[in-house]
Write a structure and sequence with these properties.
56% helix, single chain, mainly alpha
Length: 96
């Protein structure tokens, strides 16, 4: 089972690749504290959907686990798991 640092690394790599594809300068060198979506996040809804799909694929390939990130739990959470890299990595760890 993957641990938090492994998941955070995967999220950072995936966010960096997405930033290149979508030309999002603010996320070219993401950190754990990088905002993703919401008030301060540079991702629009289309980029967020792509990030979610990319992460689900990467998790399946790297950890041989199938998870769904955009589920009822995520959508109804008081604090969105998509706000920043750290919260997204924590949400992934809970589902893996």
């Amino acid at each position: 089972m993957p641990d938090y640092p492994e998941i955070e690394t995967l999220v950072l790599e995936t966010v960096g690749l997405l930033a290149e594809d979508f030309e999002i300068e603010a996320l070219r060198n993401p950190t754990a504290d990088s905002a993703l979506y919401g008030n301060n996040g540079p991702l629009d809804s289309m980029a967020l959907v792509n990030l979610i799909a990319d992460l689900e694929d990467a998790i399946s390939e790297q950890f041989d686990r199938s998870i769904t990130l955009a589920d009822e739990k995520a959508m109804s959470a008081y604090k969105s798991p998509f706000l920043d890299v750290k919260s997204l990595a924590k949400a992934i760890l809970e589902r893996v």
